[in-house]
Amino acid sequence: MLAVVNVYLETDEQLVASARVGDERAFDELVSRHARRTYGMVARILGDRASAEDVVQETFVRAWRGLASFRGDAQFSTWLYRIAVNEANRHFARETRRELVSYEDVMMKVPDISADVPARAESSEARRQLERLLAELPGNYRAPVVLRDVEGLSNEEAADLLGLDLRNFKSRLHRGRMALRKALEGLESE
Amino acid sequence: MTPDFRIPFLRDRRECEAVRSVMTDYLDADLDDRTQRRVDRHVRFCPRCRRVLGNLRATVDRLAHLEASPELEPDDELVERISRAWRSSEGRPPSSSP
Predict the structure, then answer these.
(1) Which of A156, A181, B32, B93 is most buried by its number of CB atoms within 10 A?
(2) Shortest CB distance from A112 goes to which of B20, B51, B95?
(3) How far is residue B16 CA from its own chain's centroid?
């Protein structure tokens, strides 16, 4: 009599071990657990929801094929994110090259956007506004901001995912943050 | 009557640029002590840079609240489509039996 395994109760590590030997239900459960968050991250990195689904699908296809190469020395989600970022970069490279926005100094008039942060964080209109501005950032600046500030990875983790040395990563992160800050100040001035 | 001493602040654009260039590291507490004190001193007297730093901090805080944003929720069928995609793909984990 076969033992019924409740995949919902298993850890990611247990599911990976099962999926490695062909347990498709186990991999289905991994997909269920990680698809939405992976989609959100990819959509923000690409600035494009339509492309995000294609990238996420390819991410999980590659993950399924590459399970044998997952050594378990990092969390499954970290390994999956690495695949997703690589796929997003491949997709991005195929798009029309975007011009980098030149780094500009702060404008003479600098409105204060630091007030009412909690209220702004909850307002769906404010969130949509921030998502739109994030999507408008140049890709080189957007990915560091998404991984560091939205996804909460450390500088080292995010730099590693993007294949950047730490100094280069922090420079792009700074430019991305400052560009967003300036864009938000610009909205406040209107 | 106590004289009203006000220390005039002469804006040094290069200092402002230098401080702004390390504001991300400042927010991430990733500066050496000397540089951190330099930023602290500068923003105490430079209202523009103090505002820039405050706004930058607010921007990062707002980004941190985006992760769970419903605005980027995929539709309910996404998981099903992903499942169909990997099941129909060629190749299986090498350790699986045929």
Answers:
(1) A181
(2) B51
(3) 19
Its pTM stands at 0.76
Helix H segments across chain B?
Answer: 13-21, 23-27, 33-45, 47-64, 78-87
Per CB-CB distance under 8 Å, the chain A contacts of B42 are none
User: A41: helix, coil or strand?
Assistant: helix
Determine whether the interchain pair A128/B25 forms a contact, defined as Cβ–Cβ distance below 8 Å. Answer: no
The phi-psi region of residue A110 (left if phi > 0; otherwise alpha if psi is between -120 and 50; otherwise beta) is: beta
The Cα B22–Cα B32 span in angstroms is 11
ipTM of the complex: 0.76
The total domain count for chain B is 1
pLDDT of residue A190: 61
Helix, strand, or coil (residue A188): helix
CB contact at 8 A, A65 and B91: yes
pLDDT in tens, B1-46: 444 454 555 678 889 999 999 999 999 999 999 999 999 999 998 9
Give the per-residue pLDDT at A106: 34
Count CB-CB contacts under 10 A for residue B20.
Answer: 21
Domains of chain A as residue ranges with CATH: 8-94 (1.10.1740.10), 117-189 (1.10.10.10)
What is the 8-class DSSP label of residue B6?
A: -
Mean pLDDT for all residues in chain A: 82
